[in-house]
Amino acid sequence: MEKDFQIYAGSSSKALARQIAQKLGVELGSVDLIKFADGETFAKVNQSVRGCMVFIVQSTSKPVNESIMELLIFMDSLKRASAAEIIPVIPYYGYARQDRKASPREPITSKLIADILTVAGASRVVTMDLHARQIQGFFDIPVDHMEALPILAKYFIKNELVGDDIVVVSPDVGGVKRARSLAKWLHAPLAIIDKRRAKANVSEVMNIIGDVAGKKAILIDDMIDTAGTICNAAYALKEKGATEVFACATHAILSDPAVERLKAAPFNKVIVTDTIELPDNKRFENLEILSTDTMFSETIKRIVNDQAISDLFELPHE
């Protein structure tokens, strides 16, 4: 690589940042991230960044507001130190679900965060599986939108979960495009769960569109938060005759009571990625965590070398 670039880890993504740097054959940059007694955050890098392209790996996950504020302060320190480009790598983009006004007087917080990141000095943003793709349009700077689909698909292919004996299931109508893409990778049919949501974080399974009887079902979503949706879907699939049920998602938020729900539900495996670092108390026996380090390291390499990244997500040719 010809350009001078550096990689730093924010507090929420230290392990992933370390793995990305290792894949790229570079050392993580040294930074002091200090939390004062009153809760204020301080950030200072310990080497020169003048003229450098600087990547900060930081998921804006729980505690969401603290993670965002730390990222903004970190970026401001780099801007004032004359970094040539500041590129936040945000594996999980918090507030992505507040992407529109569903009723009067509601904020569009994902747009607000996009504006703040730009003002703080971001020259481009790298993220993965936004809750809604149109959030890319909230930015006036380039957004490299990664997809975990190839990572998830290769896991199922490796474990021979492919073909007509498999059915890929979308837990709601809004996720059909994502489920259809996985179905193409796995050469499997598609089913859809028609659900009605009474209020936030509460869902009710209504009907299953498609044949799941006698098949191994793979539920796919972009995130698992309280796990109500995906667990209700698992029970419904079992009732309709699915022999095995797998769940997969990019972002494992796992707010309470998600872990207990997932452990109780009839899942053979729950497969997620490491966009959000999970503490030990959020891990359980049939949870499988796949790393996104190769995807992000390859993306960073291509950004540094001005190469296209779109082919990272393409369905391999037969």
TrEMBL record:
<keyword id="KW-0418">Kinase</keyword>
<keyword id="KW-0067">ATP-binding</keyword>
<feature type="binding site">
    <location>
        <position position="221"/>
    </location>
    <ligand>
        <name>D-ribose 5-phosphate</name>
    </ligand>
</feature>
<dbReference type="GO" id="GO:0006164">
    <property type="term" value="P:purine nucleotide biosynthetic process"/>
</dbReference>
<feature type="binding site">
    <location>
        <position position="131"/>
    </location>
    <ligand>
        <name>Mg(2+)</name>
    </ligand>
</feature>
<feature type="active site">
    <location>
        <position position="195"/>
    </location>
</feature>
<protein>
    <recommendedName>
        <fullName>Ribose-phosphate pyrophosphokinase</fullName>
        <ecNumber>2.7.6.1</ecNumber>
    </recommendedName>
</protein>
<dbReference type="InterPro" id="IPR029057">
    <property type="entry name" value="PRTase-like"/>
</dbReference>
<feature type="binding site">
    <location>
        <begin position="97"/>
        <end position="98"/>
    </location>
    <ligand>
        <name>ATP</name>
    </ligand>
</feature>
<feature type="domain" description="Ribose-phosphate pyrophosphokinase N-terminal">
    <location>
        <begin position="6"/>
        <end position="121"/>
    </location>
</feature>
<dbReference type="GO" id="GO:0005524">
    <property type="term" value="F:ATP binding"/>
</dbReference>
<dbReference type="GO" id="GO:0005737">
    <property type="term" value="C:cytoplasm"/>
</dbReference>
<dbReference type="GO" id="GO:0006015">
    <property type="term" value="P:5-phosphoribose 1-diphosphate biosynthetic process"/>
</dbReference>
<keyword id="KW-0545">Nucleotide biosynthesis</keyword>
<feature type="binding site">
    <location>
        <begin position="225"/>
        <end position="229"/>
    </location>
    <ligand>
        <name>D-ribose 5-phosphate</name>
    </ligand>
</feature>
<comment type="function">
    <text>Involved in the biosynthesis of the central metabolite phospho-alpha-D-ribosyl-1-pyrophosphate (PRPP) via the transfer of pyrophosphoryl group from ATP to 1-hydroxyl of ribose-5-phosphate (Rib-5-P).</text>
</comment>
<keyword id="KW-0808">Transferase</keyword>
<dbReference type="InterPro" id="IPR005946">
    <property type="entry name" value="Rib-P_diPkinase"/>
</dbReference>
<dbReference type="GO" id="GO:0000287">
    <property type="term" value="F:magnesium ion binding"/>
</dbReference>
<keyword id="KW-0963">Cytoplasm</keyword>
<dbReference type="GO" id="GO:0004749">
    <property type="term" value="F:ribose phosphate diphosphokinase activity"/>
</dbReference>
<comment type="pathway">
    <text>Metabolic intermediate biosynthesis; 5-phospho-alpha-D-ribose 1-diphosphate biosynthesis; 5-phospho-alpha-D-ribose 1-diphosphate from D-ribose 5-phosphate (route I): step 1/1.</text>
</comment>
<keyword id="KW-0460">Magnesium</keyword>
<comment type="similarity">
    <text>Belongs to the ribose-phosphate pyrophosphokinase family. Class I subfamily.</text>
</comment>
<keyword id="KW-0479">Metal-binding</keyword>
<feature type="binding site">
    <location>
        <position position="197"/>
    </location>
    <ligand>
        <name>D-ribose 5-phosphate</name>
    </ligand>
</feature>
<dbReference type="Pfam" id="PF13793">
    <property type="entry name" value="Pribosyltran_N"/>
</dbReference>
<dbReference type="Pfam" id="PF14572">
    <property type="entry name" value="Pribosyl_synth"/>
</dbReference>
<dbReference type="GO" id="GO:0002189">
    <property type="term" value="C:ribose phosphate diphosphokinase complex"/>
</dbReference>
<feature type="binding site">
    <location>
        <begin position="38"/>
        <end position="40"/>
    </location>
    <ligand>
        <name>ATP</name>
    </ligand>
</feature>
<feature type="binding site">
    <location>
        <position position="172"/>
    </location>
    <ligand>
        <name>Mg(2+)</name>
    </ligand>
</feature>
<keyword id="KW-0547">Nucleotide-binding</keyword>
<dbReference type="InterPro" id="IPR029099">
    <property type="entry name" value="Pribosyltran_N"/>
</dbReference>
<dbReference type="InterPro" id="IPR000842">
    <property type="entry name" value="PRib_PP_synth_CS"/>
</dbReference>
<dbReference type="InterPro" id="IPR000836">
    <property type="entry name" value="PRTase_dom"/>
</dbReference>
<comment type="subunit">
    <text>Homohexamer.</text>
</comment>
<dbReference type="GO" id="GO:0016301">
    <property type="term" value="F:kinase activity"/>
</dbReference>
<dbReference type="InterPro" id="IPR037515">
    <property type="entry name" value="Rib-P_diPkinase_bac"/>
</dbReference>
<dbReference type="GO" id="GO:0009156">
    <property type="term" value="P:ribonucleoside monophosphate biosynthetic process"/>
</dbReference>
